[in-house]
């Protein structure tokens, strides 16, 4: 009965959504003429069709039908600066005045590199790429070359980019039911399970060249890695002669040196992406000198790593000003404390009111989960998504919530109240 009631409510919510967004529906129909499924990015697909956004300003989005939403997705953590930031805008304009593409080295490239090396305990040397996906592929390849081994340890529900995911994707959340992978020789271990992981690793210890892990699962549900588990991986990687890689593409925003700094666990390599390009496409991989010096073109037998846009002047300039002047220790601490308050407030309300939701995460990166039976979870979460849209709040349909510097405490307080109200409406249908 619960599922039927929720499904009917979701059907009605989607019907209302469609009637309120005719221009988005039209734009989506036109997009399907040239894009498979009308999209080129699975994670932003929304049933029955996605909203088309006309503009963004500060912490708000305006769609083509004129509706305004407070953005609590923040482009899946990459939009930490909000939609507009004067310092980044100024840096971009200056870079444009000096030439769009130079095809050569620039001082902003080495400046950004120096800033990132200073922030992360594990990074002696760093290379740039164009996405977190690229950074992870390059880090794995470098680790295998350095160790001379072939197997890569990854973890269930881990996501390291569009071709490096290790979970089945939900159709309602991602617009697809299967993932695809670069064909490395993987060993998939259970996350946060020392005993289960150790059984797999011990059985292949002579063959493992890389261990790739998110300090907090991102797309896998914002599940923090246990300190003991991450420390086990550090110790085990050293014991078997493998390179430990921390994917901090998302968790880098949890402190000025990512989660590795807060936990005082130093991996051999770190991958970065998202916001360190100041809003442009960006990726980076770095690590200890013994690994990264393989890319030194002055050495015989150096690894070649090209990429036309690796050091794009716009990205380098925007990234440098963002890291140096915006992503400060104080600003990140304030944002993460606000996220912790939001999560604690919502979980307290969910529990005290017996609502079928919970929130997991760390700092400014969180995810709301529906706790109903397996058959009802996706429906309950989608219904919450549509109800929040009706109140002017944008979250990811899969439940991801990411804060930005454009938000105020008042904005987040309003959001908390809206989530509680919408969760109560869903809860009544689930009883």
From TrEMBL:
Keyword Repeat (UniProt): no
Top-rank taxon: Eukaryota
Organism placement in taxonomy: Eukaryota, Fungi, Dikarya, Basidiomycota, Agaricomycotina
Stretch forming the signal peptide: none
Family: Belongs to the class-III pyridoxal-phosphate-dependent aminotransferase family.
Cofactor dependence: pyridoxal 5'-phosphate
A Pfam short name: Aminotran_3
Keywords carried by this UniProt record: Pyridoxal phosphate
GO molecular function terms noted in the UniProt entry: pyridoxal phosphate binding; transaminase activity
The organism of origin for this protein: Kwoniella newhampshirensis
Protein name in UniProt: Glutamate-1-semialdehyde 2,1-aminomutase
